[in-house]
Amino acid sequence: MFDQSLLTYVILIIAIIALIFGAVLGYSSIKLKVEADPIVDQIDALLPQSQCGQCGYPGCKPYAEAIANGDQITKCVPGGQPLVVKIADLMGVEVPEMDGEPAPEAKVAFIIEDLCIGCTKCIQACPVDAIIGTNKAMHTVIADLCTGCELCVAPCPTDCIEMKPIKMTTQTWNWKFDQNLVIPIVNTTELQPKLVVGNQTGGGNV
């Protein structure tokens, strides 16, 4: 039978070793901590977080890291051109041209009611919870939440989900203001009036 004092010493030694290792790990986590790149977090905050992989990366965070390292900012299909403009503004770069190729068409998922069997597989696949429904009951898509990632299409066993283009409305229209289209005015706040046309200021008397 073990001596009680010996068992106490063993437990005490183990506790001391555990405290030492804990202190070393705690010090290492603080001393060797790698600070995250703030630009990556800012880009990631702009991305739709659909985690659809259409950009060629496994998720939005890896794509944000790739953008910070110089990758193209036009690969996010759910975000579309509005997202490209936001990222370009954040990074202080010009909005890239599409090289003659049309911009990806914004689409949303649509469920054909007669074919839906209520299997819930599309609900499980949707990363933004844009599909509602219950088991053995018809499902439907909340268009305002759908990012068009198409992840719900493949799991559907009855092929009842199709992607439809988003109709242009006052909510989906790109209302970005073009400073070059400003109507010419006369700046009378200075001693010498100047003609102001968009971003350009003409010199001389008016």
Automatic annotation (TrEMBL):
Pfam assignment, any one: FeS
Subunit and partners: The complex is composed of six subunits: RnfA, RnfB, RnfC, RnfD, RnfE and RnfG.
Residue intervals of the 4Fe-4S domain: 35-93
One GO-annotated biological process of the protein: electron transport chain
Region (Hydrophobic): 1-29
InterPro entries: 4Fe-4S_dom, 4Fe4S_Fe-S-bd, 4Fe4S_Fe_S_CS, Elect_transpt_cplx_RnfB/RsxB, RnfB/RsxB_Proteobac, RnfB_subfamily
Residues binding [4Fe-4S] cluster 3: C126, C146, C149, C152
A GO molecular function held by the record: electron transfer activity
Keyword hit for Membrane: yes
Origin superkingdom: Bacteria
Protein name: Ion-translocating oxidoreductase complex subunit B
